[in-house]
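Q: what does this look like with glyoxylic acid bound?
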Amino acid sequence: MSKPAILVARAIFPQVIEKLQQHFEVEHNQADASWSREELIARLQGKVGVFTTGSERIDAALLAACPQLKICANMAVGFNNFDLAAMTAAGVLGTNAPDVLTETTADFGFALLMATARRMTESEHFLRAGQWTKWSYDLFAGAEVHGSTLAILGMGRIGQGIARRGAHGFGMKVLYHNRSRLAPQLEAECKARYVGKDELLREADHLVLVLPYTAESHHAIGAAEIAQMKPTATLVNIARGGIVDDAALAQALRERRIAAAGLDVFEGEPKVHPDLLTVPNVVLTPHIASATIPTRMAMANLAADNLLGFLLQRKPLTPLNPEVLA
Ligand code: GLV
């Protein structure tokens, strides 16, 4: 019997490709070239599964053009590249890669907060440019981290990981806002207090965004929200581009309406708003919050195991729309 055919849309670990090849005919994007949507659709013909990375948009038009497709397995916890309603309507399963990246991503969120508050990249650029000629009492003086108020917008697993680091490691006062309030036991573990969004913005010394990107969270932080924040506050986005209005943020940073920002995700990435590239008080990283080799390996294996579990036994590990299994 011939093996089912699948497509791996981006280059991934060779070991994971080999594992998939034991059970599937695998076409994969070895060169990691950016496939256009047309090329992706052409390569998906005859494929029952696709391994995606968050960069590939799966929507009704693509599904209509790829009628054999049964599962899209994302190597990302976020799945805003999936139109889940369209997938469910077409009977196509979506899976994501949660949990395995939680602690690594929380580490990075905290690192970005620290780098932003303590002006690490700005001061390194100054040093590399040969501008460091003397000690000064206020040279790159930044914002305090320990003992300050950590505000978290989006309190899922990663948000909770950041809260724990702040509360237990740095003695921070933790406030959070979320669609739903955490169970009292989780709030106690995170030492976090639930507040409304306005209070969160007003009280934040450091505001970290960890919420999913949806139609409702589009530009959840724009000029009006930034205006509510302290001029000394920092903003960190490790969630998704589009949650922050990058143009409004760049203008606020330039006018020092907030002190600094740390951004791992961008509207329209990998393009970055040109104004963000010219303001000094921003730390910019290329969407790497989950990027350690063990974590990326675990994410790739989870996506692969979802393909294997579903296509061989109809038992995916982390289904997003389990109703299609019924
Ligand atoms: C990364 O951004 C992810 O969603 O896993």
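The domain at 102-284 is CATH 3.40.50.720 (Rossmann fold). Residues 54, 76-78, 101, 290 surround glyoxylic acid (CB under 6 Å).
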